[in-house]
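Quarterly update from the structural biology core.
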Amino acid sequence: MLDPKQIETWIAAGLPCELLAVEGDGHHFEAVIVSSEFAGLNRVKRQQRINAILKPRFDSGELHALSMKTLTPEEWNANG
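Predicted structure, tokenized:
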């Protein structure tokens, strides 16, 4: 069974994050990803960025489902 911490490690290796939290049951996962790299990107582009990082894991079947909240630090702070 896949550990959420492993997904955090994969994402962090491909994207500098101010905050990164992944929770899940071993099959379905939810991530909150806060990165200044998202500035100027719409929601779809942000998620495409994360999907590109995780593509080998999706392709191998190791990771099946990940829902994401992708925010800039400013958006995160505004949501307080």
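Residues 43-60 form the longest helix (18 residues).
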